[in-house]
Amino acid sequence: MPASLPEGAPALVLAVPDAGAAGLAGVTAEIATVLRVDNPALDVRTARIDQGGRGDPAGIRAVLADAAARRPAGSPSAVVIPQVVTPHPASFQAVREAIATSGANAYIGEVFNTNALLAEALHHRLADAGLARADRVRMFSITTSADGIILATVGGQEAVGTASVTAFLLAARLALPVMAASLDAKPSIEDAAVQLDSMGVTRIALAPCVIGPEADPAAIEEAAAVIGAKCCAPLGAHGNVVKLISTAYGQVLNQLKPSGPDASVSPP
């Protein structure tokens, strides 16, 4: 995030996939609050990725249209950041369609990546649940109850591929086998459990590699129950998730050049 934002900087829109009635409360509201406190000049908004076009005022189309109406014509009006930490094609396609139909000069940012920030956040969530040794920075001792970890993703096989690098980094932190698997595609959580079992792992922990609203909590619980695994909390509003969102916004902002009415929307 730039140290100072230019006047009329585009809004940061946290776009939540598959959010229910309370989908913009909870984790999404927490993240938005932290971003506003850290960046008082930043216009932070939350929106549902509304694929139905029902006129929901909290839907992505309505939020984008309002952001555009509050800025000079042709200037960048919003940076939309889907609340996912792995690729989620359906969400990005819905956002692209919403940008096109809203008429907003908006850009898409990505928070998913393969650096150590997600691995560190997952480590913390596992440690909080007693499923992994705490790192030295947190300075507390804990009895572990897992000797193998499965990272649960949503978004299909591409999401698993991205999470696999995060799994490698987490395995290096924990000195344990860590595998990525999908709640909605192959390889499934059960597939990963079978592979860990073949490696001699008898105590598996499930770590949801999701912020929260993009995954069905019941599906996570069911997946853990099927393989007899304990489960930690999703990433939620972990500080590293907020940092990744800020970085995604800052990267888009730094790439923007003075633009006129003919400015185009950048692809994700």
Which SSEs are present, and which pair or pack?
Layout: E1 11-16, H1 26-38, E2 44-48, H2 60-69, E3 78-82, H3 89-102, E4 106-108, H4 116-128, E5 148-153, H5 157-174, E6 178-182, H6 189-198, E7 204-208, H7 217-227, E8 230-231, H8 239-255
Helix pairs in contact: 2-3, 4-5, 4-8
Low-confidence stretches: 259-268
Distance separating the two termini = 19 Å
Annotation field: number of helices? 8
Give the C-alpha Rg.
19 Å
Approximate strand percentage = 5-15%
Lateral strand order in the biggest sheet? 2-1-3-4
Mean pLDDT: 86
Number of strands: 8
Helix content: 25-40%
The major sheet is characterized as: 4 strands, parallel
What oligomeric arrangement do these chains adopt? Answer: single chain
Structural class estimated from helices and strands: alpha/beta
Shape annotation? elongated
Spell out the helices and strands N to C.
EHEHEHEHEHEHEHEH
Q: Any overview of this molecule?
A:
This protein has 268 residues and is an alpha/beta fold. 40% of the residues lie in helices and 14% in strands. It has 8 helices and 8 strands; from the N terminus they run βαβαβαβαβαβαβαβα. It has helices at 26-38, 60-69, 89-102, 116-128, 157-174, 189-198, 217-227, 239-255; strands at residues 11-16, 44-48, 78-82, 106-108, 148-153, 178-182, 204-208, 230-231. The strands form 2 sheets. Strands 2-1-3-4 form a 4-stranded parallel β-sheet, sandwiched between helices. Strands 6-5-7-8 form a 4-stranded parallel β-sheet, with helices on both faces. Helix 7 links the parallel strand 7 and strand 8. Helix 2 packs across helix 3, helix 4 crosses helix 5 (157-174) and helix 4 (116-128) runs antiparallel to helix 8 (239-255). It starts with 10 loop residues before the first strand and ends in a 13-residue tail after the last helix. Mean pLDDT is 86; it is low at 259-268.
